[in-house]
Amino acid sequence: MRPSLIADLTAAMGKAFAAEGLDPALGRVQVSDRPDLAQFQSNGALAAAKAAKANPRALAEKLAAHLKTDPRFAKVEIAGPGFLNLDLTDDALAAALATPDALLAPDAGGARGKVLIDFGGPNVAKAMHVGHLRSSILGDALQRHFRFAGYAATSDVHLGDWGKPMGLLITEIAARQPDLPYFDAAFAGPYPAQSPVSMDDLEILYPAAAAAAKADPARDEAARIATAELQQGRPGYRALWKHFVDVSIAGIKREFASLGVVFDLWKGEADVDPLIGPMLDDLKARGIAELDDGALIVRVAEPDDKKETPPLILVKRDGGVLYETTDVATIVDRVRTFAPQQILYVVDQRQHEHFEKVFRASRKAGYAGETALEHIGFGTINGADGKPFKTRAGGVLKLYDLIEMAKAEAGKRLVEQGIGADYPQAERDEIARQVGLAAIKFADLSNYRLTNYIFDLERFTRFEGKTGPYLQYAAVRVKSLLRKAADEGQTPGPIAIHAAEERGLALALLRFPDALEETLRTRAPNVMCEYAFRLAQAFSSFYAAHHILSEADPALRASRLGLAALTLRALETSLGLLGIEVPERM
Ligand code: ARG
After folding, report:
1. Ligand 1 center to 346 CA (angstroms)
2. Based on the domain organization, do 81 and 112 belong to the same domain?
3. Whose C-alpha lies nearest to ligand 1, atom 3?
4. Per the confidence metrics, is the pTM higher than 0.85?
């Protein structure tokens, strides 16, 4: 793991505690709550004194005496009832910045183990909407963090391709084009290679089918039966279904590409179909699954459940399998194929109970083995009315349209700000794309994942405040500063720290390892967003207070350029972890 300043200081403090015969775990050092008084603080002397029935200030004095022998500290001070306030020397800060790769380069090699991340989760024949947006943005940020920190991460889109929507579509197409060979049970094949429907057709057919089934119980029943027949292998239905899936995947891939999100695996619910039969036999044979009123279920309630957990249904009375069934079988497949240490499911918090049941059933059956299963839930994206976001017409907003809206809004902003007025049109469009995506990604990620937030493009695309465009602009400003320096033949040199703003910037830079680990621990990229924002602010204070290019002292100028170059690298790295690109110029 990359060296963390806080971890180093905590280790030094722990030694001082141990030397006094105290529990070193109490020597935790943190960034000071009062940066005007000190850079770091440790409050452990209070707890230690209480445990040892000693005077906290006297104990703090003893601890301080140990720390004062460490030349890295410029100040070791006792404050209040026994807090320890610490400052590092400027040399110690500079030394910590002297190895930028140790601070900011990715850990390659997957030495920290295997993690499988299930996110995106689009459904066949349905356009992706804002709910899938949050899963995609969050899941992608997490896969980037895990990989960067040295995990072998595998992402799987887990396409929804095996449930009742498939039966609904089959019956809708059967109603419209009954002469197609897919519906003729006597047809011996081969079925046509060309799909009878396009993605645009599917987007019309699916809502029509859903409406028809809602209005007419006979249609609903037909769809239910078609779903069960599809799952049981009726050849015509499988052939038709394969067309929906292929056509949908092509459309979905385009949308993910425009969002800049990449998956390793394009598996779906249906991929585990061959595993389901043997799995059901196994569960029945071992008495884990039982028959209940014609359905096959697994009881997963636990004695201390606060509210009743219903059983997991593996097979319905009609023989159809469910979302829960495919999710259990997918665990069997993933554990067998990858044996990951953890599987993370980045899915709407409203599916929490679903995952709880799936995880319990899988553990009960012994399918999870050593693999930890974890639902990474998230809240909803709401409209101005506080309800899940809808278009003005009341429909769900398609992801594609949303990205187009964000690009258009970003384009407007650029004009307003006079950015790129003299750039070629193609470059202006590219900047608008990058800014539009940064706006939606940062707005999403900077909210803690379980918090709902209001979708407001006007606010997300602003160049002031805690926004993606503000951070891109901050990084681009550093880029142009460095470009100008290079044009003047000036190069970044070794960093030395002299002034308050340099110290502030150094401390902000050095928090990167902690922001990375904290993001991973909480599975919450808002931590990294906060890091990037604070870093940009620290740079802006530094830049406002000090000359860089016009500094007369060459060593000082080179040092400040060195700080600028390191800031740019840290900003680009943290934004990269959030899936945000930085334009060359703005
Ligand atoms: N397709 C599902 C939906 O749209 C999400 C799938 C999430 N992943 C999983 N393994 N269940 O709600």
Report:
1. 9
2. no
3. 121
4. yes
